[in-house]
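[audit] Reproducing an earlier prediction to check determinism. Same input, same settings, fresh worker. If the tokens differ from the archived copy the diff job will pick it up downstream; this log only records the rerun itself.
[audit] input (134 residues):
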Amino acid sequence: MSRMLFVNLPVADLDKSVAFFTALGFEFNADFTDDNATAMVVNEQATVMLLVRDFFSTFTDKSVADASTSAQAILALSADSREDVDQVISKAVEAGGRKPRETKDEGFMYGGAFEDLDGHEWEVMWMDPSAMQG
């Protein structure tokens, strides 16, 4: 069965986070956007909910990790090419994000990462389609 995926991330400043991800080319679903949250559309099956930290904390009894100092998850996005990997990371840095490490070239796989304004780590990966066929 195919399932939709909704990732929920706490953010310090919703407007700044929307501007950051807009600079990377993402769009937002206005039907699920208010002062506390917005729905960032990855594709028809995946959405990232950006939630103001105080609002995010209402969904859990656990303490909310500070992604600038602790890793709780690493989110990965596919890319269409090596150039696409570099372009997405470059846009993220230009929009105020950070590049935590150098891009790696494994031949059949090429990828790197960026941190968003709150420190959430996003990998951007391209794999040679012929290598995925076995």
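[audit] rerun output stored. Observation attached for the diff report: Residues 1-58 form a domain with the 2,3-Dihydroxybiphenyl 1,2-Dioxygenase; domain 1 fold (CATH 3.10.180.10).
[audit] end
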